[in-house]
Write a structure and sequence with these properties.
mainly alpha; cell membrane; Protein translocase subunit SecY; transmembrane helix; SecY/SEC61-alpha
Length: 439
C-alpha cells in the first residue's frame, strides 16, 4: 500500500489528483467545525451516544453531536442511493434507464440527488424539531420557534448539497469514491480525540495497560478479519461455448473459460444501518409518549437501549433479515442465468436456464448466511469487548472499521489500476519512439 502511494506521488498527474482530493476533504472537515445557528452544541452532544443518532454521529465524524452545517453529512445521499438502487430492480422505467448506458446513469444520478435533498430536508426537519422541543439544546438568545427551525433546516439542506458536490468532484477529478472518502474522513477525524481520552483513563488509573493492550489486539484482529472477509468471494466457473479471439480462437475450436465472482459480504454495511434505524423507532415513540405511558417508556429505556441483551438479539435478527432481503434484490439468479445463456456461457455440469438460476441461488443463499453472521459478529463483538475491558472512551465500531478498510482497499485498487495504465502507456510510447528510430 505504501509503495503504491509513493509511486503515485512520483507521477505529476496522480499527485495533482491526490492533492486535490485532500484539499476538498480539508474543506469538508473545516465545515464540520462550523455549528448550525441556534444550537447549544455542549448540551446536544449528550444526546448522541447510541442508536441511530450514534451511528449518524459516527459516520459524520461527530458532526451530529455539535450539529454542524454538515451534521447529516452524506447520510441522505446514501439512503437515497439505496432506495433508488432497490427501485431500479422493481420499477420498469428505472430499470430501462439503467440499461441505457452513460445517459441513463446520469439521469438516475440526477434522481438520486433530488431524492437526497428531499430526504435530507425531512431529516433536517425531524432533528430541528427535536432540538427546539428541548429548550436546553437551543442556544442562548434564540427563540425555539418557527424561525429557528427554518434556519436550521435551510442550513442543513445547503450543507447536504455542498457535501454531495464535494463528493462528486472528488470522484470525477480526484482519487477514489468521493462519498466513501468523506464518510471515512469523518470516522477517522474522531480517533485522535478518543485516543487521547483513552490515554487519560490510563493516567488516572481507571484502566490498566493490560486492558488497553487487549483492546488494541482485538482491534487489529478485527481489521485482519474484515480484510479477509471483504476480499473473500466464491468463484463460479463459467465456460463460453462460442469461439472468441478471431481466427486463432476458431483454430483452437474452444471457448473461453472464466468465472463469476460472488462476494461473501455482498450487502456491505447496509443491513447494519437499516437495523439501527429500525431499533431507534421504539425509543422515539417512547420519548414522544413518556407522559402518557410512563411504564412503557421505562421498559423501553431499560431493555431497548444500545448494549442491552434484548437490543443485541433484536439487532442480530434484523441484520440477518436485511442481509437476505438486500442480497435477494441485488443478486438476481434468473437475470444472470439469462445473460449467461444469451452470451453463450454455461456453468460446467449445470444445464442452462432454470437449473443455472437455482444453482446460483443456492450459492447466494449460503454466502448470504455467512455474510449475515459476519455482520452480526462485527456489530455485537465490539459491544461485548467494550463491556469486558471497560474502555468506552474509544468508539470501537465494527461498522466504522468495515467502512474504513473497504474504502482503503478500493482506493488502493484504483491507484494501482491508474499506475498500471500509465506504465503501459509509457511502454507503448517508448515502443513507438524505438519503431520510428528503427525506420
Amino acid at each position: 500500500m505504501l509503495r503504491a502511494f509513493r509511486d503515485a506521488f512520483r507521477i505529476p498527474d496522480l499527485r495533482r489528483k491526490i492533492v486535490f482530493t485532500l484539499l476538498l476533504l480539508a474543506v469538508y472537515r473545516l465545515g464540520s467545525a462550523i455549528p448550525t445557528p441556534g444550537v447549544n452544541t455542549a448540551a446536544l452532544s449528550q444526546a448522541t451516544s447510541g442508536g441511530l443518532f450514534g451511528l449518524i454521529s459516527l459516520i459524520s465524524g461527530g458532526n451530529l453531536s455539535q450539529f454542524s452545517i454538515f451534521a447529516l453529512g452524506v447520510l441522505p445521499y446514501i439512503t437515497a442511493s439505496i432506495v433508488i438502487q432497490l427501485l431500479t430492480t422493481t420499477v420498469p422505467s428505472l430499470e430501462k434507464l439503467s440499461k441505457e448506458g452513460e445517459e441513463g446513469r446520469k439521469k438516475i444520478n440526477q434522481y438520486t440527488r433530488y431524492a437526497a435533498i428531499a430526504l435530507g430536508a425531512a431529516q433536517a426537519i425531524f432533528f430541528s424539531l427535536y432540538i427546539t422541543s428541548n429548550p436546553q439544546y437551543v442556544a442562548v438568545g434564540w427563540d425555539p420557534g418557527l424561525f429557528t427551525v427554518l434556519v436550521m433546516v435551510l442550513t442543513q439542506v445547503a450543507g447536504i448539497a455542498l457535501t454531495m458536490w464535494i463528493g462528486e468532484r472528488i470522484t470525477e477529478v480526484g482519487v477514489g469514491n468521493g462519498i466513501s472518502l468523506i464518510i471515512t474522513s469523518g470516522i477517522i477525524a474522531a480517533y485522535p480525540r478518543e485516543i487521547a481520552a483513552t490515554g487519560q483513563l490510563l493516567q488516572t488509573e481507571q484502566t490498566s495497560i493490560l486492558r488497553i493492550l487487549i483492546f488494541v489486539g482485538v482491534i487489529l484482529v478485527t481489521i485482519a478479519g474484515i480484510v479477509y472477509v471483504y476480499q473473500a468471494e466464491r468463484r463460479v466457473p463459467v465456460t463460453y461455448a462460442r469461439a472468441r479471439g478471431g481466427a486463432a480462437g476458431q483454430a483452437r475450436g474452444a471457448g473461453q473459460a472464466t468465472w463469476l465472482p460472488i462476494k461473501v459480504n455482498q450487502a456491505g454495511v447496509i443491513p447494519v444501518i437499516f437495523a439501527s434505524a429500525m431499533l431507534i423507532i421504539p425509543n422515539v415513540i417512547a420519548s414522544a409518549t413518556a407522559t402518557r405511558a410512563p411504564a412503557v417508556n421505562a421498559w423501553i429505556s431499560t431493555n431497548l437501549v444500545f448494549g442491552t441483551p434484548l437490543y443485541i438479539v433484536l439487532e442480530a435478527a434484523l441484520i440477518f433479515g436485511f442481509t437476505y432481503l438486500y442480497n435477494s434484490v441485488q443478486f438476481d439468479p434468473k437475470r444472470i442465468a439469462e445473460q449467461l445463456r444469451e452470451a453463450g456461457g454455461f456453468i460446467p455440469g449445470v444445464r442452462p436456464g432454470t437449473p443455472t438460476a437455482e444453482f446460483l441461488g443456492s450459492i447466494s443463499g449460503r454466502l448470504s448466511l455467512w455474510g449475515a453472521v459476519f455482520l452480526v459478529v462485527l456489530t455485537v463483538f465490539p459491544q461485548i469487548v467494550q463491556r469486558g475491558t471497560g474502555i468506552t472512551t474509544f468508539q470501537f465500531s465494527g461498522t466504522g472499521l468495515l467502512i474504513i478498510v473497504g474504502v482503503a482497499l478500493e482506493t488502493l485498487k484504483q491507484l494501482e489500476a491508474q499506475l498500471t495504465v500509465r506504465r503501459y502507456d509509457g511502454f507503448i510510447s517508448k515502443g513507438r519512439i524505438r519503431g520510428r528510430l528503427n525506420n
